[in-house]
């Protein structure tokens, strides 16, 4: 096919695509009217308009944010009528036409795979018929909603060598099969046509294969201007080297003239081509409303207002009415739509459409507690309202998991409450249950500095840790009230957080007190906060001269090697000079001395030994067996212990017997009223002239100063005066002489 012919068909395709029934907005995309079903009533005619919204590139928009929608009859004084937007629930019958001509032999396996993947993503109400075609088309699976069965049948499709492509005949036959299958106007229809070539007997011959023509196919799919009986023909075309292998213009035009989609690409894009067509089927929506047409052919316009777009999108369509409907005086009709909840802001948003807004002076909206029958908060009042209102309701006035109802009333120009057709002043109502996501409670157990590695650790207690996604926070200098460090947001991986120790703390000349605030964030953007008010990082003592010298030398290995060489050289000189001096000294022979001492069992019993005479204290210590030394409890060590709780309870006790255990119950000292203390929490002991404290392996641990103790490991109390057992209980200890 020449480049001129390709350009010609492309131009024709766009001209047809811009038919009156589809009107593009400049930036908002377009509406494609797929199917219209009029339903005759006594006083009005119901319209079900099946449509698809596309973006500016012509692709279907899944789940568009529709603010409001109206249908207006053209050619009269009819006003726009609000309509409801919903997902179609009626069956859609789809004829799947698969090209099995000879040119498909190398790609038929990929086609089967792509087609089955499309079936998996098809609408649940879809009924498929599988129809392979070449020079003939014979269904191998009649219409069924058993998608597993459909995929099994697709696996049997094979290309037949040396067979032509009777494309038009196959599509024409599929349209007739759909006409016979459809039994209700509400039932939808569609054809998915897949091919890799043109309508011809062989690849090298321009002779057509079909007896029907392109125009006959379009006439059968669209028998009149009334699109209630239209058969959308979705086309998928693949090529090997270039688009010239296909009649691209006809495939695109066939889809455009029947309110369908077209996807053209090479063989590597098979799966995405099928999915593009399925996305169009899944994006179909239903607009439902009541109109008052005249007998015969009528024209109407469907207008859609998208959220965050000022310009509505509209599309015209035709339908037929068997009688005249008298236009009633426009009632004040209100409808609540697009009811949404923003968990992050705890605000409900809804769209309220107001019919005959020019007759309304005031719209009144309020929220009622369904169970209690009382109004929550005050009225929201809109003076001289437009036809569409955006309403926000603050969720902070609502209780979680409680049912509420939104009530809409209106005043006319005479300040009387407007009534609906049933004589009620409640024009619209929407019930809902307030179910805000809950934040994650937590406590900060300890904040521990690690000056050596330039880090600090935050130990948390988070009962619902699995809900936490990220954390962040900051540090404030308590003396100045200024923020000195921010950290996060960081992925939450456990209840011990690790962060870089701020430079302001590492370089502080005098230890200070800081407040550490932590925020935990869940996947649904719920934010929890807690603050640790007593972070007192104490830097280690500065290293001495020899430590600093060693650090400097290890940082410069060359200097260390030079010094080592000098030391070794000096040592060698001294060694050889000393050895030479000793060789010149006379040798003095000394007699052997017997230093062995024989101990008997009785020697360990001091009562059986004679008193030693003139023995110094050091010699007495050396001669006394270890077993005879007194135990630590006999040293007279004493410790003052004060128990302080956030509830205000205190306990003061002097301890002179060790070891001494502290816990919730069954210990030497039992502390009640704090479930976070273990039954046996810590042990205080006297060893080697000093007090030691041991965490006994409880769940919540023990904090000595700003350091979390390792379990079951004695740690010197040293100069520390504060031991934290939990967030509400700590000990103050004092060593008594």
What does this structure look like?
It is a single chain. With 737 residues, the protein is α+β, with helices and mostly antiparallel strands. It has five domains: 20-87 and 287-321, Immunoglobulin-like (Sandwich); 92-283, Rossmann fold, CATH 3.40.50.410; 334-434, Immunoglobulin-like (Sandwich); 443-535, Sandwich (Immunoglobulin-like); 632-736, Tumour Suppressor Smad4. The chain has eleven helices and 40 strands. A six-stranded mixed beta sheet has the order 9-8-7-10-11-12, sandwiched between helices. It has a six-stranded antiparallel beta sheet with strand order 31-30-40-39-36-37, with no helix packed on it. Strands 1-2-3-13-6 form a five-stranded antiparallel beta sheet, with no helix packed on it. Strand 25 (468-477) and strand 26 (483-491) form a beta hairpin. Helix 2 runs antiparallel to helix 3 (147-154) and helix 4 (167-181) packs parallel to helix 5 (214-221). It is elongated. The N and C termini lie far apart (108 Å).
């Amino acid at each position: 096919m020449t480049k001129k012919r390709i350009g010609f068909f492309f131009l024709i395709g766009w001209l047809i695509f811009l038919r009156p029934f589809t009107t593009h907005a400049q930036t908002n995309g377009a509406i494609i009217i797929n199917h219209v079903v009029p339903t005759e009533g006594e006083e009005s005619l119901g319209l079900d308009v099946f449509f698809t919204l596309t973006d500016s590139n012509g692709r279907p928009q899944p789940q568009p944010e529709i603010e409001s929608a109206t249908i207006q009859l053209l050619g009269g004084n009819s006003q726009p009528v609000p309509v409801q937007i919903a997902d179609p629930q009626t069956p859609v019958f789809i004829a799947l036409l698969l090209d099995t001509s000879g040119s498909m032999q190398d790609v038929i396996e990929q086609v089967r795979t792509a087609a089955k993947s499309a079936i998996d993503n098809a609408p649940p109400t879809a009924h498929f018929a599988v129809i392979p075609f070449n020079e003939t088309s014979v269904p191998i699976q009649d219409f069924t909603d058993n998608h597993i069965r459909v995929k099994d049948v697709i696996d049997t499709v094979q290309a037949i060598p040396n067979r032509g492509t009777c494309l038009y005949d196959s599509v024409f036959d599929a349209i007739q099969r759909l006409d016979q299958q459809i039994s209700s106007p509400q039932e939808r229809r569609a054809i998915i046509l897949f091919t890799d070539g043109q309508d011809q007997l062989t690849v090298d011959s321009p002779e057509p294969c079909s007896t029907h023509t392109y125009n006959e196919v379009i006439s059968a799919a669209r028998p009149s201007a009334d699109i209630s009986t239209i058969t959308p023909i979705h086309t998928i075309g693949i090529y090997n080297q270039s688009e010239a292998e296909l009649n691209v213009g006809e495939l695109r035009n066939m889809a455009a003239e029947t309110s369908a989609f077209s996807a053209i690409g090479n063989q590597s894009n098979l799966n995405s081509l099928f999915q593009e067509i399925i996305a169009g089927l899944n994006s179909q929506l239903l607009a439902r409303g009541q109109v008052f047409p005249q007998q015969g052919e009528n024209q109407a316009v469907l207008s859609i207002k998208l959220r965050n777009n000022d310009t509505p999108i509209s599309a015209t369509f035709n339908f037929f009415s068997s009688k005249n409907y008298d236009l009633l005086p426009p009632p004040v009709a209100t409808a609540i739509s697009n009811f949404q909840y923003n968990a992050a802001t705890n605000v409900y948003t809804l769209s309220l459409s107001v019919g005959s807004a020019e007759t309304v002076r005031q719209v009144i909206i309020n929220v009622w507690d369904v169970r209690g029958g009382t109004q929550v908060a005050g009225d929201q009042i809109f003076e001289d309202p437009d036809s569409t209102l955006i309403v926000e309701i603050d969720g902070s006035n609502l209780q979680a998991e409680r049912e509420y109802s939104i009530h809409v009333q209106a005043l006319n120009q005479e300040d009387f409450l407007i009534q609906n057709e049933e004589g009620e002043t409640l024009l619209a109502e929407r019930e809902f249950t307030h179910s805000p996501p809950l934040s994650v409670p937590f406590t900060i157990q300890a904040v521990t500095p690690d000056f050596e590695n330039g880090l600090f650790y935050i130990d948390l207690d988070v009962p619902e840790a699995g809900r936490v996604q990220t954390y962040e926070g900051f540090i404030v200098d308590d003396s100045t009230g200024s923020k000195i460090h921010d950290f996060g947001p960081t992925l939450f991986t456990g209840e011990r957080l690790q962060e870089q120790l701020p430079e302001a703390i590492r370089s502080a000349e005098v230890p200070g007190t800081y407040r550490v605030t932590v925020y935990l964030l869940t996947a649904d953007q719920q934010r929890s906060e807690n603050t640790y008010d007593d972070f007192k990082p104490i830097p280690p003592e500065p290293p001495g001269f020899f430590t600093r010298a060693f650090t400097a030398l290890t940082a410069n290995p060359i200097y260390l090697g030079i010094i080592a060489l000098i030391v070794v050289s000096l040592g060698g000189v001294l060694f050889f000079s000393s050895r030479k001096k000793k060789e010149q000294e006379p040798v003095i022979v000394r007699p052997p001395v017997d230093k062995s001492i024989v101990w008997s069992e009785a020697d360990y019993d001091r009562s059986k030994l004679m008193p030693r005479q003139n023995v110094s204290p050091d010699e007495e210590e050396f001669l006394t067996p270890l077993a005879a030394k007194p135990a630590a409890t006999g040293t007279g060590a004493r410790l003052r212990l004060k128990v302080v709780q956030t509830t205000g309870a205190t306990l003061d006790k002097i301890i002179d017997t060790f070891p001494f255990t502290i816990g919730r119950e069954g210990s030497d000292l039992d502390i009640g009223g704090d479930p976070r203390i273990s039954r046996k929490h810590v042990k205080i002991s006297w060893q080697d002239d000093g007090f030691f404290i041991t965490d006994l392996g409880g769940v919540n641990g023990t904090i000595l100063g700003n350091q979390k103790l390792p379990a079951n490991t004695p740690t010197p109390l040293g100069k520390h005066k504060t031991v934290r057992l939990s967030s509400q209980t700590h000990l103050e200890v004092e060593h008594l002489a």
